[in-house]
Amino acid sequence: MPGKRIRRFWADAEKIQIIAQTRVPGVSVAQVARRYDVNANMVFKWLRDPRFSSAPDLGVDFLPVTITADLDPPPLRVSRPAVPAPAELRAEITTPGGCKVRIEGGLDIRGICELVRGLER
Fold it and tell me: Which of 2, 83, 103, 109 is the most exposed place for a label (fewest CB within 10 A)?
């Protein structure tokens, strides 16, 4: 028959887990019921059942946190470590005047710029 729901069996451990989630501050029974695709009335029934009254209170696992603004942030230090460039780095520059420069190994950008400017004079 289409539309006929199959009864599900919830183990006691699952019921306790579901009930414990309803005890978290700010969480509603309806939210928890939707999470597990169970009718909220069923969860309320489990809450009244004395067998499940010993469900742990999950709210004790959360600790209060206070976020404060850091008034004196540490100064920023930007430094580049002197790392030699790998030998396989290569660059080829062709100037508008037709000069070609090939560079292999360490690439010093400032030095290359000065070299190209000098070639164009």
Answer: 2
Tokens of 55: 């469900």
Per-residue burial over 78-107, b if 16 or more Cβ lie within 10 Å, else e, is eeeeeeeeeeeeeeeeeeeeeeeeeeeeee
Confidence of residue 31 (pLDDT cuts 50, 70, 90): very high
Question: Residue 26 CA to chain centroid, in angstroms?
Answer: 24
Q: Rounded to an integer, what distance in angstroms lies between the CA atom of residue 90 and that of residue 87?
A: 8
Q: Is 28 helix (H, G, I), strand (E, B) or coil?
A: coil
